[in-house]
Design a protein that fits this description.
Order of helices and strands: EHHHHHHHEEEEEEEEEEEEEHEHEHEHEE
Helix content: 25-40%
Shape: globular
CATH class of the largest domain: Mainly Beta
Radius of gyration: 22 Å
CATH topology of the largest domain: Jelly Rolls
Number of helices: 11
Number of domains: 3
Largest sheet: 14 strands, mixed
Strand content: 25-35%
Distance between the termini: 42 Å
Length: 331
């Protein structure tokens, strides 16, 4: 294991949330332009309007080009898979909306916007790829293990040790240092170690903190005072920083990923698929919200994640459709 050199995180610039909202709007606009141009390529006024939009900001041109590369001809895709298109997007009112819905699903899921984009690479000190679970020893003696598809930045100063979880999941065993608290920042909250081992999992909905030894203090942007979480307990908070109730949990189940297993009890299929997706090449999408909301229990060996995904779909009667090697859609 290699010691990491602490460095200061970038300061200033556009807030993370504002950047995400802005890029989401541009992504939606790019999808809309792609569909409109596909539907009427001979409309000169439409072409001029599109060129004006594309030239307004270099980001517009970049995101539109990415959408073209990843999605290609959306109309052709619909023709090839008419049954899937009808069922996956639940037959919107008109064909354009159907195409737009499917394109949005594919573009967002393909990971071309925000997933592992340049901004993340610039901010992160360590990035774990698909199927990787690196173990790192920090220069204070603490140990950090990242789950697959996770990224962190770190800043160690004379007064504080801070890890910023930018994506994914991290398990930390903290070396004692009475003069420098150890803090893991994730989304809208921050977890301060009270001499402990704990896990932080950052998802699209928020974050969860699971304590394996001693205790932690969890503070968010909106919750006061901080919440103390003891050993064998877990607490979650959403993107707005609202803390949920503290609940007892088997911590070994929560961190089974460290041993290459995924163990889940009464979890939604969407959350299970998100975990498996950290190890499967490409992107897994759920086109039917009712499928994603179903709660299931089970255990899978992540050494063969493709087989684990197949086992999940067979065990719980979920249909699977693949578009090439990199896009898998469940319904």
């Amino acid at each position: 294991m290699t010691a990491l050199d602490a460095r200061h995180l970038p300061t200033g610039g556009e807030p993370e949330r504002g950047r995400k909202d802005r890029e989401k709007r541009v992504r939606e606009q790019a999808v809309d332009w792609l569909v409109r141009l596909n539907g009427d390529p001979s409309d000169k006024e439409l072409q001029l309007a599109f060129e004006r939009w594309r030239s307004e900001d270099p980001v517009h041109a970049e995101i539109f080009a990415r959408a073209q590369r990843v999605v290609g001809d959306a109309t052709l895709l619909i023709r090839r898979e008419p049954e899937f298109a009808e069922r996956a997007v639940r037959a919107p009112a008109n064909r354009r909306k159907t195409i737009a819905s499917l394109v949005t699903i594919l573009v967002a899921g393909a990971g071309i916007f925000l997933a592992f984009d340049g901004a993340l690479w610039m901010r992160a000190d360590v990035i774990a790829g698909k199927g990787e679970r690196p173990v790192l020893r920090l220069n204070d003696g603490s140990t950090l293990q990242l789950n697959a598809q996770s990224a962190v930045a770190y800043e160690f100063t004379p007064s504080e040790r801070r890890i910023v979880l930018l994506r994914g999941e991290a398990f930390v065993e903290v070396a004692p240092d009475g003069n420098r608290p150890f803090v893991v920042e994730a989304g809208a909250g921050a977890t301060t170690a009270l001499g402990t081992a704990f896990d932080v999992n950052l998802t699209d909905d928020g974050a969860s903190v699971t304590v394996l030894e001693h205790a932690v203090s969890v503070a968010t942007d909106t919750a006061t005072p901080p919440r103390r979480v003891e050993v064998n307990e877990q607490v979650s908070y959403n993107q707005q920083g609202r803390l949920g109730d503290i609940k007892p949990i088997d911590p070994l189940l929560a961190v089974a990923w460290r041993d290459g297993r995924l163990v889940f009890e009464e979890r939604t299929i969407a959350s299970v698929v998100e975990e498996i997706g950290r190890h499967v090449p490409g992107t897994i999408l759920i086109a039917d919200a009712t499928v994603g909301a179903r709660r299931v229990s089970g255990s899978f060996d992540l050494s063969d994640p493709v087989r684990a995904l197949q086992g999940l779909t067979e065990a719980f009667d979920v249909k699977i459709t693949r578009f090439g090697p990199y896009v898998t859609i469940l319904r």
